[in-house]
Amino acid sequence: MLTFRAGDADRPRGHALVFFRDGDSADQIWATYLVVAPIKMDLGKYIPAAFASQLAGQLAASGPAAYPLPPVPEKFEAGLEALERLAELRNDDLLDGGTLRMSDPLYALQPVAEIGSQYAERCVSYFAALPLEHDTLATSAITASGSLDVDDLLLQVMPDREKVGRLARLAGTLRYAIEGGDTRLVDETVNDMQRVSRHLTEKYRPAELIAAARSTEPRGATTRRTVSRALLSTG
Question: Is this model's pTM higher than 0.85 or not?
């Protein structure tokens, strides 16, 4: 069974970091990245010859597939805590693959394929259950360019507590960007927060939370109090 260390098993995002602990050294972390492509393709046509015999059959499978990048887990030198932070910043699911003996990395091919298959099946089932064909949802989720905004659709069916939780995570990302002087990330994160806030009523004080997170004052009690009040309102 899939073990979600971060993310919601009932609402998979379609992209996930997967990590394994080294059976010979428990403090070493190996990781890969799974992508459930929205467009069906035979990735086996594009893989390097060095991996063709091991991967072609898996990647050309007829069922749902999650493509691992890289196909064999690589050592993640920064450790598990840093990987958790990376998943949070990227808004990725984080899957615990368990323990493997990584002295022969190719041994991990099958476990990665099995986890990818389970994750892909869960993603396909979840997205298939969303009412994408509903006129009301679809009409309000059309972007200025005329294309369908899938994230907007997800926000419309997402429970308020999850929306507030998402705002709280974005607030952490915004503080990180402000303190690091990353103006591009600041703008992107504020836009994401404003998008989420449009799907929340005023009782959750989304504008207050965004303002507290954007403040140039040191990160502290003000943002935490605002998040706490919003979360209590969802109860």
Answer: no
